[in-house]
Specification:
The protein is α+β, with helices and mostly antiparallel strands. Helices cover 30% and strands 26% of the residues. The protein is built from 16 helices and 30 strands. The strands form six sheets. Strands 18-17-23-14-15-22-19-20 form an eight-stranded antiparallel β-sheet. β7 and β8 form a beta hairpin. The longest helix has 22 residues. It binds guanosine-5',3'-tetraphosphate. Guanosine-5',3'-tetraphosphate binds next to α3.
Length: 575
């Protein structure tokens, strides 16, 4: 108190930690205080961030739930635009028309909104199997996922694959059992299936009140209240809700006697034998909280969103050179997880999507691009919604932003203020489909080459060159055949270059020890195998059948055949 009096008017604002006669340090104290306030603001901003993706088997309701999150998240100007996006895309981005034609979602979009004190980054991920690598990369950028399950179908193949990726990375998973407004599997059976098939502990957070046409809402097991929802026309508005005690006469009167007593019985049984919600187990990826509802009718959506924001983690530490880095570190750093060219023909450019891992991003900041070792200025930073872009001046750890204008950026690259930071690379998947790509006409050859160069940077399709080919016709490799189709379609619509695919006889690929490859003669390989090079000039062998791989492994162990290039030190995901 004495210090405050002594300092006069300044004392009213600044709490003194040192005696006032220490005048020489007055300036540095102010700086320290400013730094303290800045660091508190930084912590506050980072801790309120939630970055997640929704995963599902196609048609389980991922797009619908995304839309409903936006509706409940108060991003009303955006609500409805997830579906409207399809029309918008039609006029602004041709390649997305392919999504509509094929009924698939091939692009990942980042949606951001502020809701109940949280800043939410929601990454949309493609559901189609052929795009699993793209989805995998997006999953590298999130801290949690919501897994949507069609309650009539249970766990489907794609859900299981995506779930495995999440588990491999220890990502917390929140489950939404969707479409309870239709005849569905019994809720207990669904829980059992989750537990059995995915081998994860399951905790029901709420319980359906009726099912199919009688589905009226959910019982919140934590607050011990029944939520009765009303349907709104087309599910365009939030569903009006009445929250009541489950033993209320009024509640009983809303249900048939049989379903009310079944409900009471099940609630009691869950309390007695069901798993208790354990947030630590959820954060460790050992338990999934389960929510029931109907996305299209907005039943249970808000309960899911609120609980998710409450229990999902704030940005989690990421590893740089084996060390986990706290997101609240003051210096900015992040990594690129996705590259997308020509999202909008109005801006024929390439966007690199970056997940910020530590500190604060400010537009125009100079950072190190560790792969090239150069310093770059990040002046063109954007938030995206479909083809709309909004400049971002500031962003924090946990956020995902799009950076335009840096052709040198590649997937997995680190951008950082602290030169010591370098994030682990993102593993590539070994391609399983191979086809030569020829230019459709000599007149378009220049466009054809330029298009290939751009699109290959996105890393969805890889190019290889066989040792004996004279014209360097690229051999494309992809995880799924649909990727070739998208590649050709984009070459034509975005670069005006027609192309022709020529099937190849190869079905498997292995990277080879570089030293051993120098000594290798193609005639030493099993029949039908071919020596080739990837875009980094690393030697690979192409095989017509999987058995030839094991044959060569046995015959020439010195080749040290690998499913991935040597720079990717991790195991292939279990796809
Ligand atoms: P996806 O992104 O996972 O592929 O699924 P999407 O949201 O596109 O939903 C797939 C279908 O399931 C859509 O119907 C959607 O309306 C429907 N759906 C989503 N949630 C619910 C729900 O809670 N209950 C019911 N009954 N249906 C739901 P569609 O006929 O394929 O498309 P649309 O014509 O309705 O847009």
């Amino acid at each position: 108190k004495r210090h405050i009096q002594h300092k006069g008017h300044l004392g009213r604002f600044f709490f003194q930690t040192k005696p006032p006669h220490d005048c020489a340090s007055g300036g540095s104290q102010k700086i320290e205080r400013r730094q303290l306030i800045q660091s508190m603001n930084l912590d506050k901003e980072i801790l309120r961030r939630r970055t997640f993706a929704i995963i599902s088997h196609p048609d389980a309701g991922k797009t619908t739930l995304t839309e409903k999150f936006l509706l409940y998240g108060g991003a009303l100007h955006l609500a409805g635009s997830v579906t409207a996006r399809k029309n918008q895309r039609n006029s602004t981005s041709d390649w997305m028309e392919l999504e509509r034609k094929r009924g698939i979602s091939v692009s990942s979009t980042v949606l951001q909104f502020d809701y109940s004190g949280h800043y939410v980054n929601l990454l949309d991920t493609p559901g189609h199997n052929d795009f699993s690598e793209d989805t995998y990369r997006s999953l590298m950028a999130v801290d949690a996922v919501v897994m949507v399950v069609d309650a009539a179908k249970g766990i489907e193949s794609q859900t299981r694959k995506l779930f495995e990726v999440c588990r491999m990375r220890g990502i917390p998973i929140f489950t939404f059992m969707n479409k309870l407004d239709r005849p569905a599997k019994d809720p207990l059976e669904l829980l059992d299936e989750l537990e059995r098939v995915l081998e994860i502990r399951v905790s029901a957070m709420n319980w359906p009140l009726g099912m199919g046409p009688d589905f009226q809402g959910v019982y919140d097991r934590i607050a011990r209240k029944a939520h009765f929802f009303e349907r709104t026309a087309g599910g365009v508005y939030r569903a009006p809700v009445k929250v009541q005690d489950v033993r209320d006469q009024e509640v009983a009167s809303k249900m048939t006697d049989a379903s009310h007593s079944k409900l009471l019985e099940e609630i009691e049984m869950l309390d007695e034998v069901g798993e208790t919600f354990d947030q630590a187990a959820v954060l460790a990826g050992d338990m999934t909280p389960v929510f029931f509802g109907s996305a299209i009718n907005n039943f249970g959506v808000q309960l899911l969103l609120d609980a998710f924001l409450q229990y999902a983690p704030a940005p989690v530490p990421r590893k740089s050179k084996g060390e986990s880095l706290r997101p609240t570190l003051p210096k900015f750093s992040g990594f690129i997880f996705k590259i997308q060219s020509n999202m909008d023909p109005k801006h024929r450019d390439q966007i690199a999507f970056m997940r910020i891992c530590t500190g604060k991003f400010s537009r125009d900041m100079r950072v190190k691009h560790t792969k090239s070792g150069t310093n770059v200025r990040l002046s063109s930073s954007h938030k995206l919604f479909g083809s709309d872009r909004e400049t971002v001046d500031e962003a924090y750890a946990g956020d995902v932003i799009g950076i335009v204008g840096h052709q040198a950026f590649g997937i997995g690259d680190t951008l950082t203020e602290d030169e010591a930071i370098e994030y682990e690379s993102i593993p590539k998947f070994a391609p399983e489909y191979f086809s030569f790509l020829h230019s459709g006409s000599t007149a378009q050859f220049k466009r054809f080459r330029a298009g290939i160069d751009h699109l290959l940077r996105e890393g969805v399709v890889q190019a290889f060159y066989t040792k004996t080919s004279t014209q360097r016709i690229p051999l494309l490799g992809a995880v799924g055949p649909l990727q070739f189709e998208v590649f050709q379609y984009r070459l034509e619509t975005e670069y005006g270059a027609e192309s022709r695919l020529e099937p190849s006889p190869w079905r498997a690929i292995r990277w080879v020890d570089q030293e051993a490859a120098k000594e290798l003669d193609e005639s030493d390989l099993p029949t039908g195998c071919r020596l080739a090079f990837d875009s980094d000039d690393k030697a690979v062998i192409l095989f017509p059948e999987e058995w030839a791989v094991s044959f060569l492994e046995e015959k020439k162990p010195e080749l040290k055949l690998r499913k991935l290039p040597a720079s990717f030190g991790r195991a292939t995901p279990s796809y």
